[in-house]
Amino acid sequence: EVDVEMLTEELRDLFKSPADSVRSQSSVANAGVQWRRFLWCILSMLSTSGNEVPVFGGPMMRSVVPGWIRDMLRIEIGEARGLSHEPDFVLLKLRKPEGTGQPVSGADALRDLLEADRGIVEEVVVIWAKTNFNDNIQGALLWSHISMLQTEGSDPPIRHAWVTVPTNRPDSYSPGTAPFNRASTFDGGAYWGIGRSDVFGMGSIFDIVPDWEERMPQLRDCVHHSELYKRLGLT
């Protein structure tokens, strides 16, 4: 059995500075990038035996995600600069295509497949990830809710998930306060790196892939064939 609490304090320590130090803007920004990369690795490993594809960063978005999906994801509130946002961290949930005996290999081949058969895409989840909670959720909240209004009834559906470390002390939180009320409005769920907590309405970061626990036995069988596991030194 895998303990969803296994990263609790260790994960927070990775992304927070000592209490007596002053965090620079660059160090905070770098921590945010590393948090998103960490999440991408977690999602990639959990989805190895499934039909999800985590996509992170502009270059990967352009390589893997066809233009029609990127157009759906683009959030706009005007034509002036700064009034649009293009999400660059998503989880594609796919249906297994019928009549294809061979697996798709490579970013270009996957993009071409999704371009040719749009019905394969079951859902797209936009990942809004920050190391901190509190006021940092407000920007993601605004853009995600604009997107929800713009893509209501879309096919495939577009969902939005909030994911935080958080670097704040867990004992500083109280259920029903503003951060959790805001997090509960994300239609793709709210998650953090300190384990599942029903009283706060927060899932573990592993819960972004809902059936991850059932997949664990299958992961053992495909680890040796995974390029990601090899690059991470896990084989």
Mean pLDDT value: 83
Report the CATH topology name. Restriction Endonuclease
User: How would you sum up the global shape?
Assistant: globular
- The SSE order reads HHEHHEEEHEHEHEEHH
Largest sheet composition: 6 strands, mixed
Low-confidence stretches: 1-6
Tell me how many strands there are: 8
Helical residue percent?
Answer: 25-40%
Overall tally of domains? 1
Number of helices: 9
- What would you call the structural class? alpha/beta
CATH class bucket: Alpha Beta
Beginning-to-end CA distance, first to last residue? 20 Å
Radius of gyration: 18 Å
Strand content: 15-25%
With strands numbered from the N-terminus, the spatial order across the biggest sheet is 1-4-5-6-7-8
Gross CATH architecture: 3-Layer(aba) Sandwich
Pick out its properties.
single chain; 235 residues; alpha/beta; Restriction Endonuclease; six-stranded mixed sheet; two-stranded antiparallel sheet; 9 helices; 8 strands; globular
Please describe what this structure looks like:
This protein has a 6-stranded mixed β-sheet, sandwiched between helices. Strands 2-3 form a two-stranded antiparallel sheet. The protein is built from 9 helices and 8 strands. The chain is of the alpha/beta class and 235 residues long. Residues 1-6 have low confidence and may be disordered. It has one domain: Restriction Endonuclease, CATH 3.40.91. The two termini are 20 Å apart.
